[in-house]
Amino acid sequence: MKNNPFTSEIFTTLWLKHFYDSKPSYKFNFIKNVSFYKKTFLPVYINVGKNLTKGIFYRLQKEHSDFKGKIFLLYDIPDYFNVNEQVDLINKKLEVKKIYQYKGYMMDLTNFSSTKDYQTTQFKTKNKRYVRQSHIGRLEKTFEITYDFIFGEIDENKYNVIFDHFHHLLNIRFKGKNTDYHHLNKRKWQFYKELILPLIRAKQASFLIIYNEGVPIGINLNYHAENILFKAITVFDYDYKKFSIGKLSVLKLLDWCFENNYSFSDFSKGYFDYKEKWSNTQYNFNYHLLYDKSSFFATLMANTIETLFKFKLFLRKHNINEKYRKFIYNLKSIKNDDKNRDEFISKMLSKFEPSKDFEIIDVNEKKYHFLIKHINDFLFSNPQYRKNITVFKNSKTNIIVIKGHSKSIQLMFKNNSNQ
After folding, report:
1. What is the pTM of this model?
2. How far, in Å, CA of 163 to CA of 195, rounded?
3. Which of 75, 82, 81 is closest to 49 using CA atoms?
4. Alpha-carbon torsion, ordered 163, 169, 171, 174, to 10 deg
5. Rounded distance between C-alpha atoms, residue 357 and residue 363, angstroms
6. What's the rounded Cα separation, in Å, for the pair 316 and 311?
7. Are 289 and 45 in contact (CB under 8 A)?
8. CA nearest 266: which of 279, 284, 277, 256?
9. Which residue, 37, 103, 211, 250, has most beta carbons within 10 Å?
10. Are 229 and 266 in contact (CB under 8 A)?
11. CB count, 10 Å around CB of 260?
12. What whole-number distance in Å separates Cα of residue 266 and Cα of residue 231?
């Protein structure tokens, strides 16, 4: 594979800096295109990047035997990478174990000419109404929507603003799910922030950003290798959920892939309903164990590592990992003062004329941010331009009215902190 970002000098150097104290990596003559690190005195070598990549590719080299007495663990090998596993042709003492860990999902675009062509074929019978253009059109007619695909040069100040907002949206999203999202781990996030800027400039990473009035409401982080776009981390502002921003982002990425002659758009490992619906190809995500089978110790260690990962797969199949993440989140979190803000009674009003007890409020003020989702839901059901909306608050009660050009909605919140 050409131009793999996960084995690039940029990725390798920064991963070693953040996770290996900038100590030098190990390279071996028998295996090409990958470097390793070592955690303990045991002869076990792990690929640099570990499980923070979207796919490692390697080649085995004949006439080299510097694997003797050693074990090599390589995370994240999609089977469609077609890594040469015929080790007997390389060296009869070298053995490889493929350990299945995840199902991967991908859009193979090779037999399609456009986004519309792919979409029509993928959703022609099953899930025909999954992607509704009317929802996307409603978004663009309601708000001041713009798009930006950042791939190549980018100003560092602009990058920092985007990345900070990216972190903000992810924090809110997973707080709402009551889940501890491992990518938001401080160490990992510092690594990503330092990594993505040089990768974008090297055209090995990109951002697709959906803006409303210049504020990101959807951000997609992607990696690039040869003719493959890897969809890495995606988040959208949950206040806009009804407008199908997640589906819109996939369509925009497809447009970009066809315009730039990419053959694959890879959702990578792990099941999500949207991945299954969009993908026309599934593949296995394996870990590879290479070891010296003439060494009793290396064979014993390889069998032990294989058993460990099979046990981890068993736990994932029984959703133990999800329960663990929710448990960790609950340990870290404190009581959320806003938890009751969604408890309200609503009533549609065919006509509303504000009395002297009502005053106009600015929902851009932090204390009224919780109203944005209610406004957007109202706009979705009553299509009109966002700037036609006025929000009133009764100074004597906890009643709020969202007023449109013909209809209004009254919200009475049970939580008196909204007064």
Report:
1. 0.89
2. 11
3. 75
4. -130
5. 18
6. 9
7. no
8. 279
9. 250
10. yes
11. 12
12. 6
Give the residue extent of every domain in the chain. Answer: 5-101+283-321, 106-282, 344-418
Determine contact, residues 145/245, Cβ cutoff 8 Å.
no
Amino acid at 283: Y
- Longest pairwise C-alpha distance within the chain: 89
Tokens of 232: 């890495």
The amino acid sitting at 402 is: I
Where does residue 82 fall: left (phi above 0), alpha (psi -120 to 50 degrees), or beta otherwise? left
Residue reference for tokens 């969202």: 402
Phi, psi of 256 (to 5 degrees): -65, -40
Under CATH, what is the fold of the domain 106-282?
Answer: Aminopeptidase (3.40.630)
Identify the CA nearest to 278 among candidates 244, 306, 312: 244
Nearest to 57 by CA among 226, 307, 310: 226
How far is residue 402 from each of residues 241, 283, 365, 396, measured CA to CA in Å?
19, 48, 16, 17
